[in-house]
Design goal:
Helix 4 links the parallel strand 4 and strand 5. The chain has seven helices and seven strands; from the N terminus they run βαβαβαβαβααβαβ. 47% of the residues are buried. A seven-stranded parallel sheet has the order 3-2-1-4-5-6-7, sandwiched between helices. The longest helix has 29 residues. The chain has one domain: 3-Layer(aba) Sandwich (Rossmann fold). The protein is globular and about 50 Å long. The protein is an alpha/beta fold and 249 residues long. It starts with 7 loop residues before the first strand and ends in an 8-residue tail after the last strand.
């Protein structure tokens, strides 16, 4: 449709799965995309090549968003190459599972550092450029278990619940700069997992209305819409893409 032609998007954690689908959806609509991965350079470069295949410009960046210097380097690289930042999608996250009785403070901080602190660093670094855009967009990725609770996920549930609060606060703070801030909350999405990695425990207790799991592209479609001109009146919202697995507000 080309609604994002001329726009530049940064998508964190976009070397695979939902992040990759988001990067490709935005590129398919015309945006130039910066593909970020925490450590896997090959994955980031592969997605960047896919973005270029659909006719959009792309950069790959490897860096941990928990490191503010790495985030600033990513944003500086983006502006140097593309001249602007219009869209920030905060997708990067850690989804660890460990019983609370066994959880250490280091375990807790590892998750908070990426999900909450990393999102903070990205917004801080991008804010001046999103303001210059005149129609800046931030989309944060939430989590189903932040709304339903889940065993062995105290750190992840807390961090993702914090993302909802951060979204609502930022919507107020950044509205005068013409920046919208929303959250897309994925449900039970079928994604490839590393070998010998078990299914997340909370996936086993939730069911969709249709009985089918979603695909990364289902989440990407919601993000893509929130980045479009048609969504400028939507602000401070949590949009659930979960097939009816959770029907709360």
């Amino acid at each position: 449709m080309g609604e994002l032609i001329g726009k530049v998007a940064i998508v964190t954690g976009s070397g695979r799965n939902i992040g990759r689908a988001i990067a490709l959806a935005l590129a398919d609509d015309g945006a130039s995309v910066v593909v970020n991965a925490r450590s896997n350079r090959d994955e980031a470069r592969a997605v960047a090549r896919e973005v270029e295949t659909v006719g959009s410009r792309a950069l790959s960046h490897v860096g941990d968003i928990a490191d503010p210097d790495a985030v600033q380097a990513m944003v500086d690289m983006t502006v140097s190459e593309f001249g602007r930042v219009d869209i920030l999608v905060n997708n990067a996250a850690l989804r660890r599972e460990k019983p609370f009785a066994e959880m250490t403070y280091a375990d807790w901080r590892e998750v908070m550092n990426v999900i909450l602190d990393g999102t903070f660093h990205c917004v801080k670094a991008c804010q001046p450029h999103l303001k210059k855009s005149g129609a800046g967009t931030i989309v944060n990725l939430g989590g189903l278990s932040a709304h339903t609770g889940a065993r062995d996920r105290a750190h992840v549930v807390t961090a993702k619940a914090g993302i909802i609060g951060f979204t609502r606060a930022l919507a107020h703070d950044l509205a005068p700069d013409g920046i919208t801030v929303n959250c897309v909350v994925p449900g039970i999405i079928g994604t490839p997992r590393p070998k010998n990695t078990p299914e997340p425990a909370h996936h086993l207790i939730h069911r969709t209305i249709t009985g089918e799991r979603g695909h990364p592209e289902d989440v990407a479609a919601a993000v893509r819409f929130l980045c479009s001109p048609a969504a400028r009146y939507i602000n401070g919202q949590a949009i659930h893409a979960n097939g009816g697995a959770y029907l709360g507000a």
